[in-house]
Design goal:
- The chain is mostly beta strands.
- The protein has two domains: 4-92, Elongation Factor Tu (Ef-tu), domain 3 (Beta Barrel); 100-175, Roll (SH3 type barrels).
- It has helices at 29-34, 71-74, 86-92, 100-103, 168-171, and strands spanning 4-14, 19-24, 37-42, 45-57, 60-65, 81-85, 107-110, 115-124, 129-135, 140-144, 152-154, 159-162, 173-175.
- The strands form two sheets. The protein has a seven-stranded mixed beta sheet. Strands 3-4-5-2-1-6 form a six-stranded antiparallel beta sheet.
Length: 181
């Protein structure tokens, strides 16, 4: 079995028949509907849970596991994360979707082919994800992870191209050492 990736969190029970309310990333409804099994770690032990049904209510997934039949069965797993194999998740990605773990450490180039630095992290705000870029001099700045700013993502060749618009670094500086950029 490959690496496991978290896809949601059990927030609470839903009703009295053992359904759980799960928080998940928006847009992943089709992935959740396709799953037959997830893994949950409790006390550092991995347990497999077979999915009986999935439906959606408001912004949550309501999942019924074959092994869970009452509120009492839900309580020990409340607050725990649901995991799937990384390969399962990658197979469900659409064009221009990436796993954060695949982006970290990629080399960053400007549109002229000059190396700027590496991706040191991925954050988010209400509008979009943000790529944190650590320059070769140690300074960090962030760019919105949208096509206008990041026209090329080539995970296979460990490369990202960033459109270095004038002033971007001063607008999105994460940390500095007292020197001007």
């Amino acid at each position: 079995m490959g690496k496991l990736v978290s896809i949601g969190k059990i927030l609470n029970f839903h009703g009295i028949k053992g359904e759980v309310r799960v928080g998940f990333s928006k847009g992943k409804e089709s992935l959740l509907k396709k799953l037959n099994q997830v893994f949950i770690f409790k006390d550092n032990i991995k347990y497999a849970y077979d999915i009986e049904s999935v439906r959606f209510h408001k912004n949550f997934a309501i999942i019924k596991f074959k092994q869970i039949n009452s509120i009492n069965d839900v309580m020990p797993i409340k607050g725990l994360l649901l995991h799937v194999n990384e390969e399962t998740l990658k197979a469900s990605l659409e064009t221009d979707e990436f796993l954060i773990s695949d982006l970290s450490g990629l080399a960053v180039y400007d549109t002229n082919g000059n190396k700027i630095g590496v991706i040191s992290g991925v954050g988010e705000n209400k509008a979009t994800n943000l790529l944190e870029i650590e320059k070769t001099n140690g300074l960090k700045f962030m760019v919105p992870f949208v096509k206008e700013w990041v026209p090329v993502v080539d995970v296979e060749n460990d490369k990202i191209v960033v459109n270095m618009i004038d002033g971007i670094e001063s607008l999105f500086t994460v940390q500095g050492n007292g020197d001007e950029i």
